[in-house]
C-alpha cells in the first residue's frame, strides 16, 4: 500500500496527476515552491474522492435506518387493515341495528292491540304485559304509536 498523501482533506496518493512539491531556485536567488495539487483544492480527483466518501456515509445511514423504514411501512399496512376492519364492523353494526329496529316494529304491531281500557293499575296480566312491551318498544324506538 502506498503512503497516504493528504491534501485538502483527500488522499491524493492514487491521483495520476499528483507530483510532489517542486522547489526551484531562480536566477536572482529566490526559492519557489510549487505544487499544482495544492493550488487546486477542487480538482476532479479530489471531488471524486469526496463524493465517494459521501456515498459511503449515505449507504451506512440508509442501512442503519432501513429497519425503521420497514417498521413504518408495516405500521401503515396495519393501519390500513385496521381501518378496513373498523369499516366492516360499522357495516355489521348498522345492519344489526336495522334488523333489530324492524323486529321491534313487528313486535309493536303484534302488541298494538291495547287492553280494554286498562291503565297502569291494570290487573290483567296479558294486557299489562302488552302495555309494558309496547311502552318499552316505543321508548327504544323513540316514538309513540
Brief account:
With 145 residues, the protein is mainly alpha-helical. The chain is 58% helix and 8% strand. It is built from two helices and four strands; from the N terminus they run ββββαα.
Walk across the major sheet and give the strand order. 1-2
Q: Main sheet, how many strands, which sense, barrel? A: 2 strands, antiparallel
Shape: rod-shaped
Mean pLDDT: 75
Count of helical regions: 2
Structural overview:
This protein is mostly helical and 145 residues long. The protein contains two helices and four strands, in the order E-E-E-E-H-H. The strands form two sheets. Strands 1-2 form a two-stranded antiparallel sheet. A two-stranded antiparallel ribbon has the order 3-4. A hairpin with a 2-residue loop joins strand 1 (6-7) and strand 2 (10-11). Helix 1 (44-110) runs antiparallel to helix 2 (125-141). The longest helix has 67 residues, at 44-110. The chain is rod-shaped, with a radius of gyration of 45 Å. The protein starts with 5 loop residues before the first strand and ends with a helix. The model has no long low-confidence stretch (mean pLDDT 75).
Task: Present the secondary structure layout.
Blueprint: E1 6-7, E2 10-11, E3 22-25, E4 31-34, H1 44-110, H2 125-141
Antiparallel strand pairs: 1-2, 3-4
Helix pairs in contact: 1-2
Write a concise keyword list for the protein shown above:
two-stranded antiparallel ribbon, 4 strands, single chain, 2 helices, 145 residues, rod-shaped, mainly alpha
